[in-house]
Amino acid sequence: MEFFEYEMNDVSSLTRLFWSDPQSRIDYEAFGDVVVFDSTYRVNKYNLPFIPFVGVNHHGSTVIFACAIVADEKTSTYEWILRQFLNCMGQKHPKSLITDGDNAMRRAITSVMPNSDHRLCTWHIEQNMGRHLHQDMIADFRVLVMHPLIQMSRRKWDEFKFNHKVSEDNKWLMRMYNLRKKWAAAYTKGRFFLGMKSNQRSESLNSKLHRYLDRKLTLVLLVEHYEHCLSRMRHREAKLDAKSSQSVSFTASDASEFEKDASHVFTPAAFKKVKLEICKSMDWEVIDSIEEDSLVRYVISRKENSEKMKILSCTYVDSSLQSITCPCQKLECECIPCDHIFAVLHFLKADAIPLCCIMRRWTMKAKNAFYSDRYGETYHWSDQMERYRKLRSVGNEVLFRCSMTEENTDKVLSMLVNLELDETCGSVGNEELQYSHVLAQSKRTDIERSATVHDPDQIMPKGAPTKRIRGFMEKRVIHCGYCHAPGHTIRSCPLYLR
Ligand SMILES: [Zn+2]
């Protein structure tokens, strides 16, 4: 049951198309915390932007949540795409978004997903730096982009402008200054992006899609090819799931108990990161602890430089650790506990990794709530999900209206609590309850509309770089892994060697 929506113009040519399949929606439910999307790809003969919504799964691989193809790049068009996305995903907004920085897209996000944190992709900023700045300004500007401690205050900005004699005419720079909270490391630090800075996810997806793509592709062939790529990515995920469910990541025999425990909990890809933090934690030691009721503050310092200190706060209930916070905020931003937290766990001689340090999205249980039945490489959706969708769509609205008064809230609450269910409903295990809400489904494949849709009109791109697509027989051109320019590798990249 695919979800899809489309629009046509006066002469029945396709102008907007959005679609997503059931498995993509399960993926969004489990991994839709950070969504990457950009519109700079045109891989069809009509030159229409191809806009994938991409995320990262529990194995650290790319997953696709949905896709859109549109005939223009106006704010209203992006708003339409985002609304379809939310309709499809049961109105679940992502925590944060990474985009290419297109103005119209940015405005659409502000109006449709105002509560989702939004940052601009550093890869696109790097590209634009080359286009809008002199060579001698680039290094200084890059420091502003990358340095986590340099707040881009007015004074700092004036200093940069004065040093490089920037005129007020440089519109790109002025715009970037106004948008600084969406890209400068000093502002994006401590925010939830799972450690991602750029649209590398959609880059890698596009490189997969591009592998056998031709610019002369019709939309039907493009969609078919996209489905093929999707199926390969899912096959790979299924293989990784199978492998990690039948093996445990390696830990040394003298590893701590919580490290051994973590190797069972996290997927191998996530455990790799966890293990690195555990290794780094050996450089820290707890030098003091301050108790205030259920809150304990641990002061840790670096072994070889005791002046470097951090204070972590832990809360306990009946001597079991309930929460732990570190000023570096790695756990909150990347869902991986930091080396400072592990230093405290060492000190506490923890025999297992505490629940407050485990984020479900990096574990083997990430998709536990609703299994999809796998038939070869395709996925089927259960009827129960369809019934659940109906209940939830209607229920959401009714409950919201009831919540406006205390009286109605109590009335509905007592009605729900006292609702007598058929015995066949059975009981729901804890595992499923933990999984919070589930996405609503929409049976869009019941095609009642039988309108004829014509091919879209060919359009001219709006200034965004058009990707050069490699044909079947064309020789591969090497692109730099750092600046993405063709013809040289990262080892000889002038920007990298700077
Ligand atoms: Zn930390």
TrEMBL record:
One of its GO terms (molecular function) is zinc ion binding. Residues 315-349 form the SWIM-type domain. Keywords: Metal-binding, Zinc, Zinc-finger. Pfam families: MULE. The keyword Lyase does not apply. It comes from the Eukaryota. This is SWIM-type domain-containing protein. It comes from Oryza brachyantha. The lineage of its organism: Eukaryota, Viridiplantae, Streptophyta, Embryophyta, Tracheophyta.
